[in-house]
Amino acid sequence: MKKISLIIVNYYSGELIKDLLKTLPETVSKEGEVIIVNNSPSEKLNFKEFKNVKIINNEKNLGYGRAVNIGFKESKGEYLLICNPDMKFISGFEKALKEIEKNRKIGIITPLMIDENKKVVPPWRNMEGNLKILLIILGYDKFMLKKERRRIRRKIIPVAPGACFLIPRKIFEKLNGFDEDFFLFKEDEDICRRLRKEKFYIFFCPEWIVEHKWGKSHKENLFAVYHRIKSLYIFYLKHQKVFYPFIRILLPLIYLIKSFKNKKNFEYFLISLFLEKYIKRYK
Fold it and tell me: Is the pTM for the entire model greater than 0.85?
């Protein structure tokens, strides 16, 4: 068995992945494998200059969670390192690996992220719940980031950002991987909720540092907004059904109000209003 299986989902991000592979931690490059699940069939990937890289080509874009699950089935690592294409490893991975090896109650360990300008990106996913969702919808996410910047320390957190985290193979298998109903977005919060129900916890390890080129691996277009809203609705129906009617009314209302300043928000309003038929089976 390999020590680490690095699983990357590609969607027209081949060059970003090459930059990532150049920064692999020694443990991954020497004792691990890299599995790239290609969700963009028209993009021909070539990573011959790198060792132990396996490419799985899907016939179409199957969504992020499903693609990771496909990569998992082909993997052989004791630990899974799940990573977005727009990442680079900086330092400290070995410390995170030792931490999760010695403490069997850690289900997921996640790094400190910095942006391209080396500025610390606070782990805003330390917050979870309806207040956070409301603040993000209202556009106060910058306020949350500012608050979290003052709280960078080793600690247990409720949610690990899906952009980069390490999880033992046995735990990922126990959880049956990502819920494939989340095509894009919210699959990380969903798996973290299920992990906590199994009495494991999520650990933020600031000694492990990665660079994240925010937004480089996907564009905020109508396709992304559609799946962001759909995943939000599914998440509430699955985990907080009592609050679903509130979100179902509030989200379209906020987009409608915002559309007076930006016409694009009217399209988001229509999506949030008429998405009901796609999620009926959750009711």
Answer: yes
